[in-house]
Structures are given as C-alpha cells and as structure tokens.
C-alpha cells in the first residue's frame, strides 16, 4: 500500500511536460534530453549564484535552475529550502553564495541547454533515463501504458529522478520486469483457457434448463433476463466464482 500511495503521489504531481501518453513518446523525450545534455566539471568556488537566482559556472553565466538542483544547493549549504524560499532573490543568492563549499574536489554538473539539472560529486555515476528504458524495451518489448486517468492526461508514464547507486540496481530491475512479464503472460493464458472451456460448455438444451442452471449459481436475475431476453442471438459470458459459461 505504501508503494501504491507513493506511485500515486509521483504521478499526479507531474507537470504536462513530464507526462507521456505512450512509451515511444517517453523514450524519444529521454533520448533527446540525453543528446542535448552535457557534463561540466568545475571547482566549487567557480559555481556562483547570481542575484536573479541563476548560476555562473566558470566564465559562463545565466544558467537556469530546476527545482531538483535548487534543492541540492540548499542541502549543500545546510540551509533549509523553506528558509531560502522566504527570502528575496537577491538575499537568497547571497545566502547560497556565502554558504556553498568553496574548496575540495570538482563538482559534476549536468546541463541541458541553458538549464542546470543536477550537481554531484566526483564519485557519482550517471544513469540516463534512456538507458533504463532500454532495459524495459529489452525485457518487455510489447509494453503498453495503462489507461488514461480521470484527468484525461496522466497515463502512468513519467520521468523521475534517480538516486545514488541506481546503476547497481539494473540487474534487479531486469529480474523484476521479467517476473512481471511472466506473471502477466500466465494470467493471460489462464484467461484464454477459461474462455475456451466456456465456449465448449453448454448449460442446458433449452431456455428452462439454462435458467435453472444460472439460478443455482446465484446469478442475478437481471443478468439472466438480459442473457435470455427477446434479443437477437448473441454470445454472453457470465463469470461466477472463477467459472465461465457460454450462452448462445
């Protein structure tokens, strides 16, 4: 239940540019994002917030911050994000600049176009979204997204951040996907088997026998009436306690 709640929260806090209607759309977005991104290595003292809350990196200025990077900078300074948000942009920039570490090993900075998306230490190994989706394509080639949500936009496909050591978990992710695919196929085959059995099974030789058999299974009367009403011949499947019946 905890995982379902977290998944729900992750899905519905996504902005439209982070949600996708198909796996191919998501994959193209992630591949394009990777192609437009670069890693910049810079000394901490040369990463400087400006008065309008952009970043100057080395001799380049005007880099925009996304929300994830802003949270990272706040953690690096030891000043809470809530505190920084209460300050004016000029004061917030000064607080970040005076609190950021100014010595030590270089920082690994991820830039996409003019936006800085993340800052990491030298030990960080990046896993691109497209790399993760390659695993999904390999082990679930016929993947289909779930139906649209009630808002008409959210499909359950969205980009999300990766945390430390995520690359080490790729083998586990592969195993999980394989297990899910096998379970799905088993359920699908079981469903097909039940339908085939139903298609070859008769409940009676006439309407009265069928009505008696359905009543014995406690099938609601309105379903019995619909299945045997004054309608053109048709096929009706009635499921009861795991059994299926074919009415023609």
Q: What report would you give on this structure?
A:
Among the domains are: 34-120, no CATH class; 200-247, no CATH class. It is 44% helix and 18% strand. The protein contains nine helices and ten strands. A six-stranded mixed sheet has the order 2-6-7-5-4-3. Strands 1-8 form a two-stranded antiparallel ribbon. The two termini are 42 Å apart.
Any key phrases for this structure?
6-stranded mixed β-sheet; alpha+beta; two-stranded antiparallel sheet; 9 helices; 44% helix; 248 residues
Structural class: alpha+beta
> How many angstroms separate the termini?
42 Å
Largest sheet data = 6 strands, mixed
Total number of β-strand segments? Answer: 10
Helix content: 40-55%
The radius of gyration over CA amounts to: 28 Å
Strand content: 15-25%
Q: What is the count of DSSP helices, taking H or I runs of 4+ residues?
A: 9
Element-by-element helix/strand order: HEHEEEEHHHEEHEHHHEE
pLDDT under 50 segments (min length 5)? 230-236
Query: How are strands sequenced across the largest beta sheet?
Result: 2-6-7-5-4-3
Q: Judging from the principal axes of the Cα atoms, what is the shape? A: elongated
């Amino acid at each position: 239940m905890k995982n379902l709640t977290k998944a729900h929260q992750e899905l519905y806090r996504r902005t439209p540019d982070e949600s996708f209607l198909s796996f191919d759309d998501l994959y193209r977005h992630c591949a394009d994002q990777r192609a437009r991104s670069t890693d910049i290595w810079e000394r901490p003292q040369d990463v400087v917030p400006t008065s309008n809350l952009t970043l100057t990196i080395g001799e380049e200025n005007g880099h925009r911050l996304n929300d994830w990077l802003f949270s990272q900078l706040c953690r690096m300074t030891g000043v809470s994000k809530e505190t920084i948000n209460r300050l004016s942009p000029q004061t917030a920039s000064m607080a970040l600049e005076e609190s950021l570490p100014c010595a030590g090993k270089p920082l690994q900075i991820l830039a996409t176009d003019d936006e800085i998306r993340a800052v990491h230490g030298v030990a960080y190994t990046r896993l691109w979204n497209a790399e993760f989706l390659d695993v999904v394509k390999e082990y679930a080639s016929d993947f289909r997204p779930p139906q649209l949500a009630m808002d008409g936009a959210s499909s359950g496909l969205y980009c999300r951040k990766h945390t430390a050591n995520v690359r080490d978990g790729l083998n586990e992710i592969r195993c999980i996907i394989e297990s899910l695919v096998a379970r799905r196929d088993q359920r699908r085959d079981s469903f097909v088997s039940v339908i085939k059995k139903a298609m070859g099974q008769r409940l009676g030789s006439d309407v009265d026998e069928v009505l008696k058999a359905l009543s014995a299974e406690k099938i609601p009367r309105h379903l019995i009436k619909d299945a045997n009403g004054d309608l053109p011949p048709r096929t009706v499947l009635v499921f009861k306690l795991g059994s299926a019946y074919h009415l023609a």
